[in-house]
Write a structure and sequence with these properties.
With 358 residues, the protein is mainly beta. The chain is 10% helix and 40% strand.
Length: 358
């Protein structure tokens, strides 16, 4: 950047500024040239010091600047990095043509095995930089009475390999009631990826359905849906009745959705896997009826193996989708699908076309 007094010719940072002055119109006009190549320099900032009055040279280096509002002030010329404004095509010779060898180098050709290896290597590189953690808890049982202890053992695992991870030193364990309110939180020290502990259920706790949730501090950087979560029942001491036992022998129905590629995107075909399980993690056969928030039924899907199945959905922006789950036992439950996003990454693996990966 440099200061150029009016009506003078000055070379600044290898830039030649040619100026003409129109007295009647009170306009300075000129052209910016490179002192080395004598070529025009486009996109140079030319303005009055301590003012907002200025202009930019055009693609030929020409400019005009009105001086009527800034009499006697110096002109600032800023031309740092002007070459970055040029497109590569403008910098090549007019007659340039790539050779056959260059074309072959530019061509992207990859066999199916090479593509598979590249995808695996890329995923391994991502996993090495962004290590994902998962937590799993073993509980001694799923039905408790007040005054008992919940004994548990925890495992902190690497998301891809499911190997024990020693990085996180503290595990957070929470007890959450049926109103999704936090009742208690505990910190358990981990040793080489494992932890042990217990939760005492004192008499002040209301009986009912609860969830045990567990996570590490690193997992809080991502979606809370990846936290470990397990449902339990807590009954009052000496109050277990036949109807209470009947009510807990039928486990809670849980439905998880897994958009292929990780994103559920508006306006695009999305393959979505789902799994229906009970509160013990066992797969349950069932049927899904997908409908919009306006009650329009659009898709029906069934499980194929161990409570797992899939369907294809093209979401419309602004529309919420719900799944009505029906099991062979006659249980019915309504679950909201993830909210579609306007942008994201979509990955679809097509096993029907043997020669390509979509």
């Amino acid at each position: 950047m440099a200061i150029v007094p009016r009506h003078q010719l000055l070379i600044v940072f290898s830039i030649v500024l040619l100026i003409q002055y129109d007295i009647d119109a009170q306009i300075i006009s000129g052209r910016v040239l490179s002192s080395q190549t004598k070529e025009s320099v486009p996109y140079v900032n030319i303005y009055f010091n301590n003012s907002y009055n200025g202009t930019v040279s055009d693609i030929y280096g020409n400019f005009e600047l009105n001086i009527s509002q800034n009499p006697g002030q110096d002109i600032i010329v800023s031309c740092v990095g002007y070459m970055a404004k040029q497109r590569i095509g403008n910098l090549l010779p007019y007659e340039y043509s790539p050779t056959i060898a260059n074309r072959n180098e530019l061509a992207f050709q990859m066999s199916k095995d090479d593509l598979k290896e590249k995808i695996i290597n890329t995923l391994n590189e991502v996993n090495q930089v962004h290590i994902s953690e998962k937590v799993h808890l073993h509980l001694d049982k799923y039905l408790y009475t007040l005054g008992e202890q919940i004994w548990l053992k925890a495992y902190v695992l690497e998301g891809a390999s499911h190997q024990l991870l020693p990085q996180s030193k503290v595990l957070y364990v929470e007890l959450i009631n049926s109103q999704n309110e936090l009742v208690r939180r505990f910190k358990l020290p981990t040793n080489n990826g494992t932890a042990k502990g217990n939760i005492f259920l004192n008499d002040s706790l209301p009986q009912g359905s609860y969830r045990i949730r567990a996570y590490t501090n690193q997992m809080r950087n991502y979606d809370h849906g990846y936290f470990f979560s397990k449902s339990i029942q807590i009954l009052g001491a000496n109050t277990v009745k036949i109807e209470d036992i009947n009510s807990i022998t039928r486990p809670e129905i849980l439905v998880d959705f897994f958009p292929e590629g990780g994103s559920f995107i508006n306006g695009m075909d999305n393959n979505i896997g789902f799994k229906i399980t009970d509160s013990y993690g066992n797969g349950i056969d069932g049927e899904l009826n997908i409908s919009t928030n306006l009650g329009e039924h659009i898709i029906q899907a069934k499980t194929t193996h161990l409570g797992m199945g899939k369907f294809t959905l093209t979401p419309i922006e602004g529309t919420q989708y719900n799944a009505h789950v029906i099991t062979p036992m006659g249980d019915v439950q309504s679950v909201a699908l993830p909210i579609p996003e306007n942008k994201g990454l979509r990955l679809m693996v097509n096993t029907f076309l043997k020669t390509s990966l979509e």
